[in-house]
């Protein structure tokens, strides 16, 4: 695991964190290749916008799998690997800083209960993130508004998901160097693999924790109301 103490997400208003340098908007060597880069070696690649157009069937509605504050998400295939492609909405509630934080965080974080970043596109005004594909979608879709006839998650599966999420958070808080404050914990951000193994996703609001002699960091309240701890928002 690489140390990312040399950079930190862009500071919240009133915080003292340093701003990270942005990824180069140029397409880069991989992105200039006419054939999409190999995505099987565990590293995040720089894709061209055309690579991702082709991978998703030109963002065909048949490949649409969800939408959040960042933008729409489509499934696709690159060199035989199923991926999920998330495209930043130009008028979305999240922006380029969240895109940058996500790339920086997931490039260096590595744990079975964190979603893997396959690559990204930062070409012109386009900002897209490419993740491993999680076939069972989000935990939210299995807990709320479950279609009639669909079996709810059994108790053992729920416990297994809860344990996996706890292990992912424990890694972020206690093992990652420096520690990471997730700040967007909710069912919609817990993705499920084929065996219902959970993975935390959406690190756009994450923040680097205390480093060195610092014992704490200041944060603005972030995330979705209703999922924030009451003591976190009680003074608002």
TrEMBL record:
<keyword id="KW-0449">Lipoprotein</keyword>
<feature type="compositionally biased region" description="Basic and acidic residues">
    <location>
        <begin position="16"/>
        <end position="33"/>
    </location>
</feature>
<comment type="similarity">
    <text>Belongs to the protein kinase superfamily.</text>
</comment>
<keyword id="KW-0067">ATP-binding</keyword>
<feature type="domain" description="Protein kinase">
    <location>
        <begin position="59"/>
        <end position="236"/>
    </location>
</feature>
<keyword id="KW-0547">Nucleotide-binding</keyword>
<dbReference type="InterPro" id="IPR008271">
    <property type="entry name" value="Ser/Thr_kinase_AS"/>
</dbReference>
<dbReference type="InterPro" id="IPR017441">
    <property type="entry name" value="Protein_kinase_ATP_BS"/>
</dbReference>
<keyword id="KW-0418">Kinase</keyword>
<protein>
    <recommendedName>
        <fullName>non-specific serine/threonine protein kinase</fullName>
        <ecNumber>2.7.11.1</ecNumber>
    </recommendedName>
</protein>
<dbReference type="InterPro" id="IPR011009">
    <property type="entry name" value="Kinase-like_dom_sf"/>
</dbReference>
<keyword id="KW-0723">Serine/threonine-protein kinase</keyword>
<dbReference type="GO" id="GO:0005886">
    <property type="term" value="C:plasma membrane"/>
</dbReference>
<feature type="region of interest" description="Disordered">
    <location>
        <begin position="9"/>
        <end position="33"/>
    </location>
</feature>
<dbReference type="Pfam" id="PF00069">
    <property type="entry name" value="Pkinase"/>
</dbReference>
<dbReference type="GO" id="GO:0004674">
    <property type="term" value="F:protein serine/threonine kinase activity"/>
</dbReference>
<keyword id="KW-1003">Cell membrane</keyword>
<dbReference type="GO" id="GO:0005524">
    <property type="term" value="F:ATP binding"/>
</dbReference>
<keyword id="KW-0808">Transferase</keyword>
<keyword id="KW-0472">Membrane</keyword>
<feature type="binding site">
    <location>
        <position position="86"/>
    </location>
    <ligand>
        <name>ATP</name>
    </ligand>
</feature>
<dbReference type="InterPro" id="IPR000719">
    <property type="entry name" value="Prot_kinase_dom"/>
</dbReference>
């Amino acid at each position: 695991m690489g140390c990312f103490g040399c950079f930190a997400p862009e500071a919240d208003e009133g915080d003292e964190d340093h701003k990270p340098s942005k990824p180069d908007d140029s397409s880069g060597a991989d992105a200039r290749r006419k054939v999409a880069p190999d995505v099987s070696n565990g590293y995040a690649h720089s894709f061209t916008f055309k690579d991702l157009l082709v991978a998703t069937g030109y963002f065909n509605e048949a490949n649409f799998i969800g939408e959040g504050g960042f933008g729409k998400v489509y499934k696709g295939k690159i060199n035989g690997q199923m991926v999920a492609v998330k495209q930043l909405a130009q008028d979305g509630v999240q922006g380029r800083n969240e895109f940058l934080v996500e790339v920086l965080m997931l490039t260096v974080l590595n744990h079975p209960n964190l979603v893997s970043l396959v690559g990204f596109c930062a070409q012109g005004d386009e900002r897209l993130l490419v993740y491993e594909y999680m076939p069972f979608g989000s935990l939210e879709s299995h807990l709320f508004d479950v279609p009639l006839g669909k079996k709810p998650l059994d108790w053992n599966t729920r416990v297994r998901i809860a344990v996996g999420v706890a292990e992912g958070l424990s890694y972020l808080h206690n093992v990652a160097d420096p520690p990471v404050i997730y700040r967007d914990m909710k069912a919609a951000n817990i993705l499920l693999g084929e065996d219902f193994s959970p993975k935390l996703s959406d690190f756009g609001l994450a923040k680097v924790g205390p480093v060195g002699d610092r014992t704490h960091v200041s944060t603005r309240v972030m995330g979705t109301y209703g999922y924030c701890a009451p003591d976190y928002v009680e003074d608002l």
